[in-house]
Amino acid sequence: MKQTGDSKGALVLFSGGQDSATCLAWALDRFEHVETIGFSYGQRHSVELQVRPRVLDLLGDAFPTWRDRIGEDHLVDLSVLGQISETALTRGVEIEMHSNGLPNTFVPGRNLLFLSFSAAVAFRRGIKYLVTGVCETDYSGYPDCRDDTVKAMQIALNLGMEKRYVIHTPLMRIDKAGTWALAKRLGGDALVKIVRDETHTCYNGDREHRHAWGFGCGTCPACELRAQGWNSFSASSPFQA
């Protein structure tokens, strides 16, 4: 990978889901050059990785200004994380709550590793800004999604790499309805349609069942959050499909 040397560029942690796609649009609206990074870690909903190229293509087609800003996409193999994780996202087990109050969809260390590897790629690419879709307002209680965690990681990365990275978290203080609304503010109904129809959130990897809010099983925690957000958003904001 060549180094861009572009201080006005950003690297977006882009999984293929609703949140990261909205953050990608947020970055494209603000930065002159935007690269993306995704991680294959043995997730049972690996279909999210398959939708990434199409989302990128559709964003470029729908928004010509953004097309010129979309840079290289990086896909990193972190299968070792899946190998050491006993979670509902990396094993074919039923989703449930643990006695500690965390769901078994929590993959310990996942977002910490994602940010570390993203910073390593950004180091080589000469990119200062990292953008991630973590949120502590409307989430499953994952401790590595909290604002304090992200701020601590930023400090650790800056100290450990002698850089001055800035980690942006556009969704940190908004709920899923707010995420849909942010997409509409950024790109109108065209962007909402791309996010709704093309991104993937369902933990079970279901791309067969279509709902008003997109594809998914409709019963896993990720689908429930997405559906609730859509219902609140669509009730208050007219949407033309």
Can you put this structure into words, describing what you see?
This protein is of the alpha/beta class and 241 residues long. The protein has one domain (9-236): Rossmann fold (3-Layer(aba) Sandwich). The protein has helices at residues 18-28, 47-62, 64-67, 79-84, 110-125, 147-161, 176-198, 221-236; strands spanning 9-13, 33-40, 70-77, 129-131, 166-168, 210-211, 214-215. The strands form two sheets. Strands 3-2-1-4-5 form a five-stranded parallel beta sheet, sandwiched between helices. It is globular. Residues 1-6 have low confidence and may be disordered. It catalyses: 7-carboxy-7-carbaguanine + NH4(+) + 2 ATP = 7-cyano-7-carbaguanine + 2 AMP + 2 diphosphate + 2 H(+). It holds the Pfam family QueC. Belongs to the QueC family.
How is the largest sheet built, in terms of strand order? 3-2-1-4-5
Model regions low in confidence, pLDDT < 50 over at least 5 residues: 1-6
By CATH, the topology is: Rossmann fold
Q: By CATH's scheme, which homologous superfamily applies?
A: HUPs
Q: How are helices and strands ordered from N to C?
A: EHEHHEHHEHEHEEH
How would you classify the quaternary structure? Answer: single chain
Name of the level-1 CATH class = Alpha Beta
Number of helices: 8
Proportion of helical residues: 40-55%
Query: What general form does the structure show?
Result: globular
Using only CA atoms, what is the Rg? 17 Å
Indicate the mean pLDDT: 89
